[in-house]
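Workshop exercise sheet. Pairs work together: one partner reads the sequence aloud, the other fills in the structure field after running the prediction. Swap roles for the next sheet.
Pair: D.N. / O.F.
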Amino acid sequence: MAMADRSASTVWEGNLPKGKGTLTLDTSHATGDLPVSWASRSEKRAEGQTSPEELIAAAHASCFSMALSNELSEAGHEPERLEVSSTVSLDMVDGGPKVTTSKITVRGRVPGIDQAEFEKAAQGAGQNCPVSGALMGNVDISVDAQLES
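Structure field:
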């Protein structure tokens, strides 16, 4: 049995290059409807629209922050603050678009820990968060971790 199910839905109108969609977070309703388009995925400018890749990045950053907080706390080093970002890349591979990388950057304030311990915990979180598990084998995941004073 699932620990928790979450749902989102999209209504798409038109063809791929010129069409558009509206994404809804059905479980939480944490945001209003979010516009999506092929242009928001394939061009440098998003113009107020999101993309599946941005949503993957959001999921990965938030999941990683929770996993790292847990790893640090279990090791006796409760974090004061973790700033986590993820950049997910969509590239053309073998003639088609493919999500290829998720680059996680974390900056943390954690009393009583050194850089080596922080990096070890961050690498563990990068391997152990559920979103990383969903991406592994398909997406190259990297973690850049820096401890701040």
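Discussion prompt: The mean pLDDT is 94. What would you look at next?
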